[in-house]
Amino acid sequence: MSAPIHDRPGQAPQRLAGLLAGLCLGLLAGCLLALLADRWVWLGMRVNAGLLVPLGALLGGLAGLKKPLGAARPWLLAAQAALLAAAAWLLGFDRQALLVVPACLFREGCQMPGLSLATINALLASWLLAGNALWLILGRRLGQPRGL
Amino acid sequence: MKKSAPPLLLAALACLSLALLTVPAWAAAPDLQGLSPEKPLIVDSQAGSLSYLAKVNGKYLHQPTRHASIFEGGKFGGKSVFSALAKPDDFRQALLSLGFKAGDNMTMDNKETTSVQGDELAVSVTWPGAARAYTLDEVIVDSNGKPLLIRFGGNQGAAHQHNTGCLICLDSCPVGIASNAAYTYGAVEKRGEVKFTGNAKVLPPDGTLVVITVSPKK
Known about the structure:
Strand content of chain B: 15-25%
Structural class of chain A: mainly alpha
Largest sheet of chain A: none
Order of helices and strands of chain A: HHHHHH
Radius of gyration of chain A: 17 Å
Number of helices of chain B: 4
Shape of chain A: elongated
Distance between the termini of chain A: 20 Å
Number of domains of chain A: 1
Largest sheet of chain B: 10 strands, mixed
Strand content of chain A: under 5%
Number of strands of chain B: 12
Helix content of chain B: 10-25%
Shape of chain B: globular
Radius of gyration of chain B: 19 Å
Helix content of chain A: over 70%
Number of domains of chain B: 1
Oligomer: heterodimer
Distance between the termini of chain B: 72 Å
Order of helices and strands of chain B: HEEEEHEEHEEHEEEE
Structural class of chain B: alpha+beta
Largest interface: A-B, 32 and 40 residues
């Protein structure tokens, strides 16, 4: 049975919300995978582990577009918090390392060696803050969708 | 519409900060001893030394690496503590012009059992605002506390063939122009005998331009 016609206008914001949620979750997941890969020195010296960061964000965004993630589902926020905590643990809860290593991996992954870490950290912070804020606002307006 | 205004404002502020922060690191660099991105290597024949320009890679102040310095345009460009602006060929030529003798004893077959030979080099690092020039031992931490023993390996053919960009490797290397005779190849990546990281307590932040000077070991 096809969806009622009056539901269709809600699809675009729902997809947008899904895209935003997927981009945030994918970015963090890619970052954690890149950190893990880079800890193996042999691999880290041979491949660009940083590629996993934009790749994770891309895959997360695509997955978000396909699945209706629109509502403010607490587990998505919890998953992001868990990924952040795991990254902090891998870096020994060292504040300096947290400000430097993920940004360096992102810079390597995006092949932009000229970008300063301050710029990248500002970009990543606004990506996560604005992405999550927009997703939560859209999700609340749309209500709790089915799926996922 | 009003509810979505704060995040949009946040995004706009982020874009503005991006624009303000994207300034080249060397835009205001005061004293680089006559070196610049356009002239990244100079030879001082009287002092018998050469100096080249490099950038600190902040990642390796917190993560281990097996490279002290690699040319930023090489295949392994971003994998060293100091991303060199000078090319391996120019570095090797400069060492030869100063009369240093290359070991040229490392091959792909003997690399794990042979220590690099060649003249021993004293490597120091300084930067605008540094209290003094620091030895390579002071800016790169060996987890075993063993002193670095940097020798002029040569390796012209392998350096051309592999195009890694390596100037100074931290274990004996058949590709790098100079490398550390204190360990044989594989000590870092394969056998895990040692971990090398940049010394975050001494080195300036990521992106800072530094001057690396190579002279005869006394």
